[in-house]
Design a protein that fits this description.
The protein has 288 residues and is of the alpha/beta class. The chain contains 7 helices and 13 strands. The protein is 20% helix and 26% strand. β8, α4 and β9 form a beta-alpha-beta unit.
């Protein structure tokens, strides 16, 4: 049966989200259409609703489901109808999002889901892990990887380790052989340690930056800031070595002091499309 209409969570003219019947999207070149089985929430969802105010846009980024249609120019053998798939789209910006019965996504920025995974678990394989990969190996160009882990561990600070992206950063960093220093609320210490963190500090502690610096012997030169606000830049600055270091950000801010280089990434870059929210971006083939 061919469906032409679907239910979707849409931004209304007053900025609120409503469920409405809209047209089912059609996959374009290099795209697949997925019947959504589950969707996950991200901070970008509410922020895009609140600040983007795109009337008619479908909300939601992360999804998992089953492929129902394959668009033109998708590489042969990459996907077939009926495959389980997970990924992300730039929700709350276009008339296409994850909080809908169907979504259209990039065929090459989508993950094959094993049959053993539940839809609830698979729905998280979207923006968060890909953003974590960008933060570790796009913003930083000299860190080891899980495929080539270092045999001589050195410290990396994961600020906001219990966040959706932070949890993936901790796991990837540990698999790369790094000594993972993390921050979170005390209630999440056990969670963060279970993911691989070697040491966890309470970011509420007014001396936390200095304590991390002492714990690393003043040798910390790498950090991932998964919060990028509420004073995180100063805490990280206090924790880094006197010589400075590199910090990858989820949201841009100025370097807190001389010797510290900062670089921000956003998963939307991977979709291979220009966009004008949350900032203006023209497609860069080197990133896609």
């Amino acid at each position: 049966m061919v469906h032409t209409k679907m239910n979707a969570a849409v931004i209304d003219t007053d900025g609120k989200v409503v469920v409405r019947k809209i047209d089912v999207p059609k996959p374009g070149p290099g795209e697949i259409m997925v019947k959504v089985g589950a969707a996950a929430q991200n901070p970008t969802d509410w922020k895009s609703i609140a600040f983007g105010k795109r009337t008619g846009a479908v909300v939601g980024c992360d999804y998992t489901g089953v492929i129902e249609e394959i668009g033109p120019d998708v590489p042969a053998g990459l996907w077939k109808v009926g495959d389980r798939a997970s990924g992300f789209v730039q929700g709350s910006t276009w008339p296409n999002g994850a909080f809908a019965e169907y979504t259209v996504a990039s065929a090459e920025v989508t993950i094959h889901v094993p049959d053993s995974w539940t839809v609830e678990s698979a729905a998280h394989l979207g923006a968060a892990p890909l953003t974590a990969i960008q933060a570790l190996w796009q913003s930083h160009d000299d860190l080891p990887t899980p495929l080539k882990p270092t045999s001589t561990p050195f410290p990396i600070l994961v600020y906001g380790a219990s966040s959706s992206v932070g949890q993936f950063v901790v796991q990837f960093a540990k698999l790369s052989g790094l000594h993972v220093i993390a921050t979170s609320s005390p209630k999440n210490f056990d969670l963060v340690k279970s993911l691989g963190a070697d040491e966890v500090f309470d970011y509420h502690d007014t001396e936390v930056g200095k304590k991390i610096k002492a714990a690393t012997g003043g040798k910390l030169k790498y950090a991932v800031d998964n919060i990028s606000e509420h004073g995180s830049s100063q805490i990280i600055s206090d924790a880094l070595s006197d010589e400075g270091g590199k910090v990858s950000l989820l949201f841009p801010y100025e370097s807190p002091r001389a010797g510290i280089s900062v670089s921000s990434t956003v998963a939307y870059h991977l979709l291979g499309k220009s966009f004008d929210f949350p900032f203006s971006y023209t497609e860069d083939p080197n990133l896609t």
